[in-house]
Amino acid sequence: MRSLAQSFTLAAVVGSALVSTVIPAVADTVKITVLGVGDIYNFEGGKVRGGFARLNAVAKAERAANPNTLYVFDGDMFSPSLLSGLDKGKNTVELTNLVPFDLAVPGNHEFDFGQAEFLARLKEAKYPFAAINLTDAAGKPVPGVSTDVVIKDMAGVNVALVPVAEDETPEVSSPGDWKFGPTQSMAIDAAKKARGDGADIVIGVVQAAHNIDDALLKSHAFDVIVSGDDHDYRTWYDGVTAYVETSTEANFLDPVDLTVTVTPASGDAKRSVTWTPSFRFVDTATVTPDAETQAVVDKLKGELSTQLDVTVGTSQSELDSRRNIVRSQESAVGDLVADAMRAETGADIAITNGGGIRGDKVYPAGTVLTRRDILTELPFGNVTVMTELTGKAILDALENGFSQVENGAGRFPQVSGMVVTADLAKPVGSRVLAVTVGGQQLDPAKTYKLATNDFMLNGGDGYTAFETGTVMIGPKSGHLMASDVIDFIQKAGSVDAKIDGRITISK
């Protein structure tokens, strides 16, 4: 027989057990901040906003405010810039090492200087690079670049970072024989697998054009997408997926705060995770630069000035290198560059891609040009080359050049020694209406000597027609394009490049 005290004790235990089965599990709330950046090139930024010192200040502040911060890079910093033309992007690694990323996805511009320089930068970096769709020629991971989805435990929340590179990289940059799998399909497949493997939150870190971004967004395979490449500032939330396009030069940043509610399993109810996003707009014009980073920036500025603040000559006419100009029409600066390439090689004609002209500014008539100006315009370190090829191949190349004008593609041709008429209302592949060389109609069967750059010679920007020619001056024997332009201006003392009707476009 139980005592009265034993009966009370047993009743208390039973009652406690009964209560525990009906009390709902207590949910935990975790705040996760996602800060993405990409397309940042110029180490010092602008006078008002942007640059690594302001970026690092924001990243430090975000991590200090929330230990559950993911700081990610979505491509493009090794090139192009004034300094990267000299140090192959070392400055960007030095500056980002001060506040390392949690994850970095290589953008197409990380490969502008070839495989060896890319691998050298990775060895210098104090943060991990990854891309699920990048392999070497044998299909194996590139040294220093993981092909895995990255898993992070953020206060008990299982976060999967899906890193994806741009599959058009071999066409627009110089990764050699490395392979890039399809960005869209591989990203979606990896996100779904991560979810199936138990990820609570799936975040895509991608370099992709807007049309790919939109497809990833509509797939609803991701909770968050952080994307670069288009140089725009965009945010979107459709109730399922939050999306951020990370601007350019760190001018504008958009930390995304995820309020994550985790309800543990209880009884028949499984563990559940829900979240809501909050977008914050950061105009870096309001940010005080990080002092440690600014000291490095000032050091780099001093080193650069001694090399670049050297007068080359005077431009008697206005030179306009704005992105929308050099990628859509004949430009005086494009004429100047192409003329310099043709003069250096003695070629019949010259074609260079407008996307390789990067200053994005207007030089008023009378501007005294310096080495800094020329290297700002031509920062990729490309070499002037010459090949001999048929008029048919030249026509095919020009068709490629005019094929994506509406999209602002960098393949738009800036030319010398020829006159081209094109109609953008025509279907792609039949837009070139007329071409003359030296006053004579282009002969498809005749061979011509063409000056171009080594990137295009190897099929870059879609100029595969150039690969059919016979190389007369190759990359190993050619000069830097920037050096050829500098020499051209110095020999003349002053230049008077003007739009003269080399390219006529109807729409």
Describe what this molecule looks like in 3D.
- Helix 2 (52-65) runs antiparallel to helix 9 (291-308) and helix 7 runs parallel beside helix 8.
- Helix content is 30%, strand content 27%.
- It starts with a helix and ends with a strand.
- It folds into two domains: 28-297, Purple Acid Phosphatase, chain A, domain 2, CATH 3.60.21; 311-506, Alpha-Beta Complex (5'-nucleotidase,  domain 2), CATH 3.90.780.
- A six-stranded mixed sheet has the order 7-8-10-11-13-12, with helices on one face. A five-stranded mixed sheet has the order 3-2-1-15-16, covered by helices on one side. It has a five-stranded mixed sheet with strand order 24-20-28-23-29.
- It has 15 helices and 31 strands.
- It has 507 residues and is α/β, with parallel strands linked by helices.
- A hairpin with a 2-residue loop joins strand 26 and strand 27.
- Mean pLDDT is 93; it is low at 1-22.
Strand % is: 25-35%
Low-confidence residue ranges: 1-22
The biggest sheet, with number of strands, parallel, antiparallel or mixed sense and barrel status, is: 6 strands, mixed
Instruction: Determine the CATH topology of the largest domain.
Output: Purple Acid Phosphatase, chain A, domain 2
Radius of gyration: 28 Å
CATH class of the largest domain: Alpha Beta
Give the domain tally: 2
State the helicity in percent bands.
Answer: 25-40%
Chain-averaged pLDDT: 93
Q: What is the count of DSSP helices, taking H or I runs of 4+ residues?
A: 15
In CATH terms, the superfamily of the largest domain is Metallo-dependent phosphatases
Distance between the termini: 102 Å
In the CATH classification, which architecture of the largest domain applies?
4-Layer Sandwich
Structural class: alpha/beta
Q: What is the strand tally? A: 31
Shape: globular
**Physical arrangement of strands within the biggest beta sheet:** 7-8-10-11-13-12
